[in-house]
Amino acid sequence: MKKTLSKIAFFAALPVLLFTTVSYKSDFFEIAKQLEIFTTLFKELNMNYVDETNPAALMDTAINAMLEDLDPYTHYWNEQEVQAARIDNAGEYTGIGATVGIKADKIVILEPYKNYPADKAGLKAGDEIIKIGNIAVENFSEDAGELLKGAPNSKVALTFKRRGEIKTTSLTRGAVEIKAVPFYKLLEGNTGYIVLSQFNRNASAETAEALRELKEQGAEKIILDLRGNPGGLLSEAINVTNIFVPQGELITSTKSAVEKYNQTFSTTRKAIDTRIPLAVLINGRSASASEIVAGSLQDLDRAVILGARSFGKGLVQRPKDLTYGTQLKVTISRYYTPSGRCIQALDYRHRDEEGNALRYSAKDYNEFKTRNGRKVYDGGGILPDIKLETSEFSDITNALLLKNAIFDYATNYYYTHKLDTPEEFSFTEKDYSDFKDYLKSTGFEYQTATEKELEDVVAAAEKEGYQQNLSGELKSIKEAISNSKEQALNLKKAEIMSLLSEEIIKRYFYKEGLYEYYVKKNPEILKAKEILQDKAQYQNILKG
Can you give the residue ranges of the PDZ domain (predicted)? Predict the structure, then answer.
């Protein structure tokens, strides 16, 4: 009953939110009219429907359907989700100390953190948790991941499956600290390397501390690694950039249909070092706050950006408190870099026939200028100064990641290969051939954009009666696509082997071992070091 009331109370609170933030940009009467229609409909439906209804479930469906029509970042958060967001920003929580993947009937351990409860209990990446205490995951209708959380020092029994074998273990929950800077090290050539993995409340403090320590050790150049960083707090993105640029520099601006959300954000502190040569690594999983940092440093000609075009998440969200401890996380504006580029890649205002948001095409990109007059472009995300093949994710790579093929192969590799140190690891041509055989044995398939278009052509041909006449040509096209998909595994071998190597190294030596492997063999880091070592090349890139 409480849940039902909270859902209804949420919707009852909507008029206040709408009227106070958008009433002046929409017709006030129309909003009131639509709310009255919905309220009347909701009441009549629950009172008169032939079967018993669940008002809370109906309201949940209504809310989610309404928000899904906007963008994927506008969400309704219940009390638990509000608390989870606070934990993410704080950088500490109480749990088992592992990244997990939630599926319909199981929870998969993606990465146990070294020396935390899951690791101490013997859990490994790839383990499938099927029971938590006496509760079977498949029978739990809510978010089963919540069952893993609990009070500090509380114990929990787990039943899990490993390579087909059922096992049990128990662990004691504990405080888990999520470091924004999990690794930094002085490399050869007096180059400091800093990994910034997220923008929680400690991001700028930890980055500043790492920089100071590296400089004390003799660092004269810095590599800042933002690859895979999904973003976080805007204030921390400003503060991280402020470490390398002076006070009073514009870092980003936001634009909205709501006047009060049109804002500019500049650095407010004295920088630690505005002259030290700086290289920033990004890829397709660097998003939001990561893109603000990379984009501003690029526009100000303060750093050379290497890797692949970033994700393109340039929509700003703000939580709005509702009743019963719930929140509406609503998109309020768009981010822009100092030169005026919009970071956002997908246009949710315009969609294709399947309802997917359209991506801005190259012909629609606009040219902007950095402080030194270098040409840069919008179109979503930050395009690096130096593009590297190993950083890019092609269709085949995205399909492998989406279907967990790389993750699952790494699990098999871990249980069939012995490895003592990160330095001795090398993913060979023979290993890659074995990976391709593994894909065949598991029936791996994916659909290309061309195949999706071809389906439409076939459907149209059938409708118009041309299928028989085109059957030969269609067969040839399908065979050509199939051959191209086979060749894609070879054409994109570099990026796929890089991801396979990373996933495998983590299985043996955790994230710490992966970073140690990175600084010796990762092509992006090696290229960044090369550019930083060549002072003339570094300056020529920034001068354009």
Answer: 81-164
Length of the chain: 544
**Active-site residue flag, 266:** no
Beta pairing, strands 263-266 & 250-255: antiparallel
**Among 127, 225, 299, 378, the one annotated catalytic:** 299
For 92-177, CATH number?
Answer: 2.30.42.10
> Strands, E, within 381-514: which ranges?
386-387
Query: What pTM did the predictor assign?
Result: 0.84
Active-site residue (options: 6, 204, 286, 288): 288
User: Catalytic: 299?
Assistant: yes
Parallel, antiparallel, or unpaired: how do β-strands 155-162 and 128-132 relate?
Answer: antiparallel
Q: Which of 515, 541, 523 is nearest to 193 (CA)?
A: 515
Output the pLDDT for position 495: 86
- Out of 7, 131, 221, 313, which one is annotated catalytic? 313
CA distance 346 to 326: 28
Mention the CATH class of domain 183-387: alpha beta
pLDDT in tens, 240-267: 999 999 999 999 999 998 999 999 999 9
Catalytic annotation on 33? no
- Cα–Cα distance measured from residue 377 to residue 320, given in angstroms and rounded to the nearest whole number: 33
SS (H, E, C) 349-390: EEECCCCCEEECCHHHCCEEECCCCCEEECCCCCCCCEECHH
